[in-house]
Specification:
311 residues, Rossmann fold, DNA Methylase, Chain A, domain 2, 2 domains, seven-stranded mixed beta sheet, three-stranded mixed beta sheet, 11 helices, globular, EC 2.1.1.37
Length: 311
């Protein structure tokens, strides 16, 4: 059994897929206390270090076991096109932005730990132009000459929502495809809202917003927000027989038929989380943990591909 360390562990989406594929999650590093509690609950046998990755030493990790695999999704805010405040110069996003520098600390720890495999997840913008070359150069500096920028679409691996991400690794990742799933399949079989099912409580909204939501047709959005490269929609009424748009921490979806927002559990299902994966903290934090995760369905496919590579 291979040992996995998850840096930027969040609510555990990346780790969940690896655990379901038979890997042993030994450590999760997560600075946010709500996400750390979520990770701890769902991976009771793992050590949770509620610390800043920039302050973590490899010695602190090795106290609890030597990892075969290091995974992690470093903060995407410095690199994503949805952030209207990202720095203009791509290299400043990595070397100057404090959140961007956390990607460099992932690389530092990979260099110190020298795992068999590492996988760094982020938005595709990290794999373009000068940023791509900088990432390649930084990994080479810590001992990894062969770097792959694996661009994957989550919906090709059984996730009922769109998500394009790059998984930077020292091995090529070619996951096995899974049957596509749509919103209808994802939301099927849930008990009524507020029936005591975990993370399945009503999301309160103003009366004015409720009236506007009632007029939305499938595919319509209540509002738009500006990103660095255009406008993005929010409060979108989903279509039953299509995949959902990209789930984000700040994005809310409207039920395909009912005039209400999806619950945390419903949005978690759109990301491929199983119902026994429970989220803690205030509701906004729970939505963030879901939206910022690697979909477990995609993570599982990646883990299966790595098992073949490791033999």
């Amino acid at each position: 059994m291979y040992n996995v360390v998850d840096l930027f562990a969040g609510g555990g989406g990346f780790s969940r897929g690896f655990a379901e594929a038979g890997f042993k999650i030994i450590i999760g590093v997560e600075i946010d206390p709500n996400a750390a509690r979520t990770f701890s609950y769902n991976f009771p046998h793992a050590v949770v270090l509620e610390e800043d990755v920039s302050q973590i030493s490899y010695r602190e990790i090795e106290k609890y076991g030597r990892p075969d695999i290091v995974i992690g999704g470093s903060p995407c805010e410095p690199f994503t096109s949805t952030n209207p405040n990202r720095m203009e110069d791509p290299l400043d996003r990595l070397y100057t932005d404090p959140l961007g520098q956390l990607t460099l600390h992932f690389i530092r720890l990979v260099g110190e730990l020298q795992p068999k495999v590492f996988v760094l997840e982020n938005v595709p913008g990290l794999a373009r132009g000068p940023l791509k070359e900088a990432i390649r150069r930084e990994f080479k500096r810590v001992g990894f000459d062969e770097i792959y920028f694996n661009k994957l679409l989550a919906e090709r691996y059984g996730t009922p929502s769109h998500r394009e991400r790059v998984f930077i690794s020292n091995v090529e990742i070619k996951p096995p495809r899974a049957a596509p799933r749509v919103v209808r399949e994802a939301l099927a079989g849930l008990p009524p809202v507020d029936s005591g099912f975990p993370n399945h409580e009503t999301v309160t909204i103003s009366q004015r917003k409720a009236e506007r939501i009632a007029r939305l047709k499938p595919g319509d959005a209540l509002m738009r927000f500006r990103g660095a490269e255009g406008f993005y929609e929010n409060y979108i009424r989903l279509k039953w027989d299509e995949i959902a748009p990209t789930v984000m921490g700040s994005r809310r979806f409207v039920h395909p038929e009912e005039n209400r927002l999806l619950t945390v559990r419903e949005q978690a299902r759109l990301m491929g989380f199983p119902d026994d994966h429970v989220f803690f903290g205030p509701k906004d934090s729970q939505f963030n943990q879901v939206g910022e995760a690697v979909p477990p369905t995609l993570s599982y496919a990646i883990a299966l591909a790595l098992r073949r590579s490791l033999g």
